[in-house]
Structure to design on (452 residues):
């Protein structure tokens, strides 16, 4: 990454007389007013504490994207033949260094994590259809895997004869050991009766509820248990937590660049560790590049807007305007979201859904039971009400109690509703105070979800 911009010594006079002893130039980092300006396009009056869903792109990157779009529109043929592939390769090279991959050929740029899941699960489905995997062999996944991943398993794997083992993530969760224990049980079920686990899908950060999963440890267990392939779905990871694909050790690893890495939607990377399997991976959209390797196939899927893939170098420059670069942003977001989550839990008399060390730049906070979040419909009603009446954009999660019993909203202290807050560089204390006060207002009014 490039170093932050340096300020020249202001004592240097106009005629170039620099014989005096100059001080070491100080680093110039982005200021709070500059941050406000970068995100001034956000709709006024809305507390955006849901960066996790769609991310947010700063104004300077939007401007860079527009320049790339215009370059294409000015002379498409020249851009296609002389510039596009070289610039995509440049972005892939930067990503390769960011995630510590061995070779740029291991990095493909795709639209999003959903596309990456289709690539991996399509390949697994072919193995079942071709008879390389036996009918009934298993794919193991967490129950809170993204819905598109579940649908891809349905589309590619189960219809070809594969079975699915679902591991239920304990939540609220207190330690990595709880997750590891449940995952081991899932692998054991997948291997029962002489069957094999052909693929394990591991979230690095689950979405709802939000928890950092001990991905490296689970991948290690998969290797010990003979799992053939491991796919880490890390849609929320890059820009939120440290990512080192060699350290994690999975066969496949995907993360969106538009969630926490400031890219415009939609762009993601798919890391595929070099192996004999590599030539058999293909993009679901077949273009004239079919057969030239996944990275090349993914770099051309027909005429479309590729500008979101081309701004990666500019995004790195934007990130380096912050003290500590990417690591500094990650730490500040984590610390701030834990602080805000703790403030909310204290105000509502509830708790965090996981310890701070298991939180990324998002935190789950229990909602007071008197609100009556007793179903997914209740959660959606509350989310919509907060948006429409309080200008708050924040996801709500319904969590069935561990004993499976859903109790009435009678103030008995049973928490079945959680709010997921995010923190990104544009957020301020007021965003979370507004959420605190909105929930307290609903409680004061005696409102419950079924009334909203």
């Amino acid at each position: 990454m490039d170093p932050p911009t340096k300020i020249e010594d202001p004592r240097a006079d106009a005629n170039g007389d620099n014989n005096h002893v100059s001080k070491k130039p100080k680093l110039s980092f982005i200021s709070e007013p500059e941050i406000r300006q970068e995100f001034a396009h956000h709709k006024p009056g809305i507390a955006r504490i849901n960066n996790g869903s769609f991310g947010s792109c700063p104004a300077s990157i939007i401007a860079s994207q527009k320049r790339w779009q215009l370059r294409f529109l000015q002379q498409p043929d020249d851009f296609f033949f002389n510039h596009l592939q070289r610039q995509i390769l440049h972005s892939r090279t930067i990503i390769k260094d960011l995630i510590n991959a061995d070779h740029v050929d291991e990095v493909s740029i795709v639209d999003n994590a959903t596309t990456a899941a289709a690539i991996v699960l399509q390949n697994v489905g072919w193995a079942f259809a071709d008879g390389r995997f036996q009918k009934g062999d298993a794919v193991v996944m967490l129950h809170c895997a993204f819905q598109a991943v579940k649908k891809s398993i349905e589309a590619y794997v189960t219809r070809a004869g594969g079975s699915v083992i679902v591991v239920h993530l304990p939540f609220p969760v207190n330690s990595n050991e709880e997750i590891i224990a449940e995952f081991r049980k899932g692998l054991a079920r997948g291997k029962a009766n002489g069957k094999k686990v052909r693929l394990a899908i591991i979230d690095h950060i689950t979405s709802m509820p939000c928890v950092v999963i001990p991905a490296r440890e689970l991948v290690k267990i998969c290797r010990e248990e003979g799992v053939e392939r491991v796919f880490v779905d890390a849609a929320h990871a890059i820009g939120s937590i440290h990512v080192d694909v060699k350290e994690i050790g999975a066969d496949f690893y995907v993360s969106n660049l538009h969630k926490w890495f400031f890219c415009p939607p939609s762009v993601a990377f798919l890391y595929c560790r070099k192996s004999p399997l590599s030539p058999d991976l293909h993009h679901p959209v077949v273009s004239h590049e079919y057969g030239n390797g996944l990275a090349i196939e993914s770099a051309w899927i027909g005429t479309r807007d590729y500008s979101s893939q081309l701004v990666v170098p500019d995004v790195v420059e934007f990130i380096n305007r912050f003290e500590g670069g990417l690591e500094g942003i990650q730490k500040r977001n984590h610390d701030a979201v834990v602080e805000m989550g703790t403030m909310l839990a204290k105000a509502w008399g509830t708790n965090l859904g996981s310890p701070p060390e298991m939180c990324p730049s998002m935190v789950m906070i229990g909602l007071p039971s008197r609100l009556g979040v007793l179903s997914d419909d209740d959660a959606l009603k509350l989310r919509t009400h907060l948006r429409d009446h309080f200008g708050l954009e924040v996801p709500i999660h319904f969590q069935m109690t561990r004993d499976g019993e859903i109790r009435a909203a009678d103030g008995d202290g049973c928490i079945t509703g959680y709010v997921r807050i995010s923190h990104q560089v544009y957020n301020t204390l007021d965003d979370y105070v507004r959420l605190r006060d909105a929930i307290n207002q609903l409680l004061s009014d005696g409102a419950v979800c079924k009334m909203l």
